Amino acid sequence: MDKRSLAQLAGRFRDAEARTEILRQELAAAIRQADVDGVAQKDICEATGYTRQQVRRIVKAVTESEVPPSSASGHNEGTP
Length: 80
Fold this sequence. Notes:
By secondary structure, the chain is mainly α. The protein is built from 4 helices and no strands. Residues 6-33 form a coiled coil.
């Protein structure tokens, strides 16, 4: 293997990583939408091959990120 071939292979690998990240995000969004649409968690797991825990984490991750920072900390603004 020469340097040029190695560099080409490394570039292909980086491209694949980028595509994988995009697809991972798309799948996570689809899982969250399926949850909102009322698809049973069991069915989401069967369709994706993910465990129930993985599905719960994906769904919960967006729920926690949508909570305003003042609410997430459990403190009310203006109170000590």
